[in-house]
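INTERNAL AUDIT FORM
Audit reference: QA-55
Scope: verify that the stored structure record matches its stored sequence.
Auditor: D.O.
Record contents follow.
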Amino acid sequence: MLQHNGVDQLPSGIFQGHSPGLSPELSLDQFDSQVDALFFPMDCEAPRETHFSGTLQGRRLGGVGLAAVKSTPLEVYRRRSHIGQVADAVYMVKVQVEGESLVRHCGREAHLRAGDFTLCTSAEPYRISFPGDYCQVVLAIPENVMAACVREPTRFLGLRMDARAGANGLFTQFLVSMSRQLDVMDPLLAQRLESSVMDLLATTLDHAGDMRRHELPDCGVRREYLHRIRAFIRRHLDDERLGPDWIAERHGISTRYLHMLFESESQSVSRHIQQLRLEACKAALADKALGHYSVAEIAYRFGFKDASHFSRVFKSGFGSTPARFRREQCSA
């Protein structure tokens, strides 16, 4: 299980220790055990009269996880007794690729067919019924990452997101296409694609939510600006232009107003940028799949152009130099 808990880390062990390669066909007990290890505790039950077989494939994309799951008919239960076993909540975007499923979650039912998706959280019970052979692609998103990119994601829990509506189909096509490249995708490319996935998900849900931003009171406008600006910063950590002036210009506001928006936050906008860049570097340095990239290459990838400056701020933030932190992670 993953023990890191930074901004760009998956909590509670999700996708730790699993290679991108497709698993062999599994028995029900093996499948149940690997589902628990790959995601979090839940129960998998198959009809007694059928012969069960299933496969799993999963890998991390920076701070999120992507998995492909296939099996014969199955019932999946995330019970209330399971919830206390995992401290950190995770949002699960479940995309139906083949077959169909019925998802019961938060008092709602979502009947998914190919191309549809729904949103679940590990913090609440759910039940998923797969009446026939199926394939799902699952995007696992830590709660803090989701909150930084999607405003009020709980609005969408348990809803069927129709593939024919809005940008839903575009999002599912992109995710399914990525899932088919899991075993060949370069690790650094996979990490960079995280922002694209989250940006497209935010756009998709934003459109589906039919938000009336122009009707928001002033405090709502401020919250909406902050939400969009935080998401923008996360998507452009590797852009050397990222700073107060460029952010303000891209959002049609003055730099002074941008600083005013962050006055109520615990960090200034510049400090917020630096902290996110440091957390992204920390996650990359802890990822053994990125071991062939030097510390300087990783620092440069996330906007640090001076290696000495990066080393100083990393040590100040985490109590260790980047190189030492990486050695300790590798030895652990």
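Auditor finding: record pair retrieved intact. Residues 1-20, 211-217 have pLDDT under 50 and may be disordered.
Action required: none
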